[in-house]
Amino acid sequence: MNTPLPAALAGLALLLAVPTSAGAQDPAALQAEGAALIKEYADTLGAALKGAIDRDGPAGAIGVCHEAAPRIAAEIGSRSGWTIRRTSLKARNPSAQPSPYERAVLEEFQSRLAGGGDIATLTRAETVEENGGKVFHLVKAIPTAELCLACHGTTLKPEVKAKLDDLYPGDAATGFKAGDMRGAFSFAKRL
Ligand code: HEC
Questions:
Q1: What percentage of residues in the chain have a pLDDT greater than 90?
Q2: Looking at the domain 26-190, which fold is it?
Q3: How far is the CA of 17 from the centre of ligand 1 (A)?
Q4: Do 128 and 122 touch, CB atoms closer than 8 A?
Q5: What phi, psi does 26 have (nearest 5°)?
Q6: From atom 40 of ligand 1, which residue's Cα is the shortest distance away?
Q7: Residue with CA at minimum distance from ligand 1 atom 37
Q8: Among the residues of 18-86, which ranges form H helices?
Q9: Helix 27-80 with 158-167: angle, nearest 10 deg
Q10: Pick from 145, 166, 163: which is nearest to 62 by CA?
Q11: Are 165 and 173 in contact (CB under 8 A)?
């Protein structure tokens, strides 16, 4: 009761500085862990995509994308305990539609990009209260590269278009230019 305020505050600061479960919930550590997983997912998927395009051309590679993207996400997710997905304001796979949270982040990224922001810096990392629990979210923008345009650009080869129409009747993920934001990696971990 009689503790002077500065001493009480110092005690409080000390209390807050004690890491919980060896720093597992430290935002910087979570962000680093998530960023490494995003890199692994992007590299693995990118290599599978490039290999398939070199081998079978873009129309042949669609099947790889269709099958490999969810499989790699599920594999990294079950190993790490993170929820791993890609999302977009213009989604191809209906399951990539953004949640309200993801939509707000994507729209913020889009307006930062329109205002001259560097796409490489478009990342959001934060802990959010969800359904009575805490969830750490890491969202990182995915730029459109030249390689992507064969399947996400404005002019698609007829065989690419036919295959996409067949697999994704509601496909909204065309008409992109190099440098556009294609979507985002959205990784989350329940704390
Ligand atoms: C060979 C065709 C092809 C190429 C090239 C390609 N994609 Fe895709 N992309 C797809 C297909 C097919 C899907 C749907 C995958 C699924 O069913 O989960 C997809 C889905 C995505 C998604 C998930 C969101 C959504 O719209 O469903 C993102 C993000 C994405 N692609 C980004 C890229 C980027 C970035 C590149 C270039 C580095 C790229 N893609 C190159 C075919 C392609």
A1: 85
A2: Beta-Lactamase (3.30.450)
A3: 43
A4: no
A5: -70, 125
A6: 148
A7: 148
A8: 27-80
A9: 80
A10: 163
A11: no
